[in-house]
Amino acid sequence: MRPEPDPVVSSVDPAEVARYTRLAERWWDPQGPFWPLHTLNRLRTAWIRDHLCQRLGRDAQAPRPLAGLSLVDIGCGGGLLSEAMARMGARVHGVDVTADNIAVARRHARDSGLDLTYEVGTAEALAHRGARYDVVLNMEVVEHVADLPGFMAACNRLQRPGGYGCIATLNRTPASFVAGILGAEYLLRWLPRGTHQWRRFRKPRELQALLARDGIRVAEATGVRVNPFTRRMTPSRSMAVNYMLMTHRPEGDVR
């Protein structure tokens, strides 16, 4: 009889772990293979800050607008987003399945004088031990996992009642195949070939259904436009290629 997959690690794709292990030492090179994430990080950081502050009644321009919030960054990689959130005052727990990524993230945080908690692990493992956070970040991760329903269920469990979540990914459309695969990986060579698998791109309605199953709703949404000439990224009404969602679990939902 074939053994059942371990629910704590079922979403992990070994091929993805191997890919990011090879690239781990390049995370903080703004001209290296992760330059698109460096560019995107400026946009997503401001978007997360502004919408969280709007909903929580905080001043987005304050020196530490996210002070006091507990935040988990699932699939934190080398810590680009985790550090940005920590600089805004959040208590950050960065989690990644690739040990080399966590080693790089810890080293960079230490050298930057930042106090973050990093851990090699999964969303499923955190959920299994009952962890809850004010903010759950799941950015550029869902297109890399092997078990989307299981992964989303774990992330949903991490979001406390009244808490918020953020998801960023690519839509599964003809436009995203042209821009995200042919353009970014083959023509412009912005990303290493094989970085993405189009069949794993996620439609917004698919994620919305997995969120609604656990009583979580989409509170904000935006597309992301990439200028191929300037490499600049800006918000867009179109979600046909890249998009971001902010989610909210109602205060009274204790499941």
From TrEMBL:
* The protein's Enzyme Commission number: 2.1.1.222, 2.1.1.64
Q: Which reaction does it catalyse?
A: a 3-demethylubiquinol + S-adenosyl-L-methionine = a ubiquinol + S-adenosyl-L-homocysteine + H(+); a 3-(all-trans-polyprenyl)benzene-1,2-diol + S-adenosyl-L-methionine = a 2-methoxy-6-(all-trans-polyprenyl)phenol + S-adenosyl-L-homocysteine + H(+)
The pathway it acts in is: Cofactor biosynthesis; ubiquinone biosynthesis
InterPro entries membership: Methyltransf_11 (IPR013216), SAM-dependent_MTases_sf (IPR029063), UbiG_MeTrfase (IPR010233)
Per the record, the coiled-coil ranges are none
What does the UniProt keyword field contain?
A: Methyltransferase, S-adenosyl-L-methionine, Transferase, Ubiquinone, Ubiquinone biosynthesis
Q: Where does S-adenosyl-L-methionine bind?
A: 44, 75, 96, 139
One of the GO BP terms on file:
methylation
The Methyltransferase type domain is annotated at 72-165
Checking CDD domains in the record gives:
AdoMet_MTases
Q: What class of enzyme is it?
A: transferase
Q: Which domain of life is it from?
A: Bacteria
Q: Supply one GO molecular-function term.
A: polyprenyldihydroxybenzoate methyltransferase activity
The protein's matches in PANTHER family, at most eight in alphabetical order, are given as: METHYLTRANSFERASE, UBIQUINONE BIOSYNTHESIS O-METHYLTRANSFERASE, MITOCHONDRIAL
Which NCBIfam families does the entry link to? UbiG
Q: What does this protein do?
A: O-methyltransferase that catalyzes the 2 O-methylation steps in the ubiquinone biosynthetic pathway.
Give the record's family classification: Belongs to the methyltransferase superfamily. UbiG/COQ3 family.
**Under what name is this protein listed?**
Ubiquinone biosynthesis O-methyltransferase
The scientific name of the source species is Ectothiorhodospira mobilis
Q: Which gene encodes it?
A: ubiG
